[in-house]
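As a warm-up, study this chain.
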Amino acid sequence: MRMKNYFLIFVVLIIKLTYLNTAYADKISILYKVENSPITNKDIAKEINYLSLFNKELKNIDEEQLIKYASKSAIRYKVKKNKLLEVFKFGENDELVNRQVKVLVSDLNLNQLQFEQLLDQLGLSLTFIKKKIEIEFLWNRLIIALYKDKLNINVSEIEKKLKSDLNDPSNFIDEFLLYEIFFSPNQKTNIDNEIMKVYNSIEDIGFEKTANIMSEAQSSKLGGKIGWVTENQLSKEIFDRVKILEVGKHTGAINIVGGIIILHLKEKRKIESDLNYEDELKKIISAERDRQLTQYSSVFYKKIEINTKIYEN
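Now compare it with the structure written out below.
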């Protein structure tokens, strides 16, 4: 039943995207050039369909916003790819890419045949999906190589807080379902204006649609969804902001490495804190490492984007 419902969701989305892609194809041919690499109307149409795999809510975004979102995503792909071609050789990561395809199929609650049928309906190929996955894998590999020695993880502080939480006589800890919008204004003089634009967009179209369009984080294609996070996995500054939020509300702008983050609390619950100390410690350290690498990734991408010639036709 779950798989059937998922297909019904995509039928509605495919009908909308088919109409949109047909109409869009009649409007323009080449939208952008990233250095000497063009981004055409067909590229944007494919990007829209690719992004729809991860976020069924795209059916609720109007045409102008959807095109803007897909264009931004396609540009990021080209910028990353051009940089990675300077460092890596593509096509040498088949085992990892195939493994990630299986994860994607599982996350979509489909079997392999259904997945391939869905790609066909969306006008996508498995080769296209694999290229997307390889780009993200190599990008993450590059970020780790560049910034692993710059990570600053206070293990003793994490251990202290974890022991305190696990020894809490209430035996319960808070867990939050969080969404994010991350952005990095180009100039300090524009920070207040950029923040206000985000706030106004959240007011007009909601947090998740704003994350789709305006967030620079990897989670933007999921409407900004981070997922369920325990209080142990949050820094003190973030936890202090999140713990006082009402469900459905968002924080103010928080300054972090590389830019500004705004967090939205979707749901909140209590869970038993009967966790294994060593396992939880590893999870928290890993989460903090990933958080810092994500921030460095955004900073590094911004530097490359600024120095890349991007033309709009």
